[in-house]
Amino acid sequence: MSTDRFLGDPVLDRMMKVVLALSQELYVLRDRMGTIERLLDEKKVITRSDIDDYMPDPQTQSQILGERDAYIERLFSPLSDTGDPERSVDD
After folding, report:
1. Mean pLDDT, the chain, whole residue set
2. How far is CA 18 from CA 6, 34, 62, 74, 90, in A?
3. How many domains does the chain have?
């Protein structure tokens, strides 16, 4: 078992690992749903292999990366926020 301590408490560290794992899974689902939506806009009918084989054009890839970066920023901003502790993530 790892002895890494990031938040000063092993229970908090384990909870953080859970949050990060769930966040990763959520991002994968969001990314796949975006792929499905783009393919449906183009083709109207798609297969699983269409989704698995999808390769975005450079402009779409740039948009996807921007959305990913915004997601990561929203996810981690509460950890670096030095302002009001009562401020919600969506403010």
Report:
1. 83
2. 14, 24, 29, 17, 21
3. 1
DSSP string covering 8-72, please?
A: SSHHHHHHHHHHHHHHHHHHHHHHHHHHHHHHHHHHSS--HHHHHT----HHHHHHHHHHHHHHH
Domain, as residue range, for 48: 10-76
Tally of CB atoms within 10 A around 56: 14
3-class secondary-structure state, position 38: helix
- Residue 40 belongs to some domain of the structure: yes
pTM: 0.64
Q: Given phi > 0 = left and psi -120 to 50 = alpha, else beta, which region is 66? A: alpha
Contact 54, 60 (CB under 8 A): no
